[in-house]
Amino acid sequence: EEGTGADRLMTQRCKEKLNTLAISVMNQWPGVRLLVTEGWDEEGYHTPESLHYEGRAVDITTSDRDRSKYGMLARLAVEAGFDWVYYESRAHIHCSVKSESSQAAKYGGCFSGESTVLTSTGLRRNLSSLQIGEKIQALDPSTNELVFSEVLLFLDYNPSQKRQFLHITLASGRTLTVTPSHLLVLDDRTMKYAQKLQPGDFLLVSDNAKNALISEKIVRLEAVWRSGVFAPLTGVGTLVVNDVVASCYATIDSQWLAHWAFAPIRWVAKLWDSGLRKPGVGVFWYARLLYATADFVLLSHLLHE
Least buried of 75, 79, 171, 271, by fewest C-beta within 10 Å? Predict the structure, then answer.
């Protein structure tokens, strides 16, 4: 509201929840947008201990400022993952988040454990049971053809961690549950963060019955919570999850750059034992290192906010 851009200053965790809430508002009330009336406080209006000074709190309303929507707006804010939501005044709802403490809030993107991939044996396997060394369906960027590529490692693997995802529904009924910072492939072969998708966008999909790539329209996006986070890395840097073509990468808004950055690991992985094996729990050390240093070596527009 001040016109200074200060209300856009907030932690990554707060931004992620706010972007998810914006999608929910758009789905709940077509034509209505989420409005942030106060983010970071530059004028000293709040008490010294206020989370507005840490970028962890926002005051929100809807673009039409309809107070009758506040009850549902608060509910959507809770579902979006805000840790604290309450009616602070008749003019807005106050939302805040915990501090940035977990690796999940900082590093990478993942799929939910019940998501499935097609293996080279013709069988479908849940990501929660997928092993390193198996070959799964992917898109070869050099030929734009479907191939089976080996799972070299998991960038993130945690069967018990609870995480916020975006649940994407396509016109055919296909669904994909993915973290907001993950890159998905549009029908024109470009990549976009999951959280930037909107109903009406078209994703690239594998039609296995016809052994062909087709495009499918997104009809709904919603925020959900799931237990289990899984992010396989294949040799070609892509994979097909629930028939939807996706990147193996997240956080960095460039498939080419991310794939290039992981080249050393792909080379080393080829020297490892090729037998099937289970991955270790947690964010892979090389991925953690890359994401931690990305702020210092990459332009800001290439990083997920």
Answer: 271
